[in-house]
Amino acid sequence: MENVMFAKAMAIGIGSIGPGLAIGFIGAKAMEAIGRNPEAAGKILVPMLLAAAFAEAIAIYALVIAFGIN
User: Fold this and answer.
1) Angle at the Cα of 51 from the Cα atoms of 46 and 55, rounded to 5 degrees
2) Most buried by CB count within 10 Å: which residue of 5, 51, 53, 70?
3) Alpha-carbon separation of residue 34 from 23, 40, 43, 58, 70 (angstroms)
4) pTM for this prediction
């Protein structure tokens, strides 16, 4: 029983590291780009949100896998 809980914790823990880093980099680079060219804020916002959503999807997959471990 303890090994199952450990496996679930590892699955979501390791699976959320990548998306967390990705969202941080996406936000940092988007803010950097907006800082350099404030007129392009509207053009940068939508791709930034899409990239963040795709990164979040990876974390959701890790959560689903963690729930699937028996």
Assistant:
1) 145
2) 51
3) 16, 6, 10, 26, 46
4) 0.79
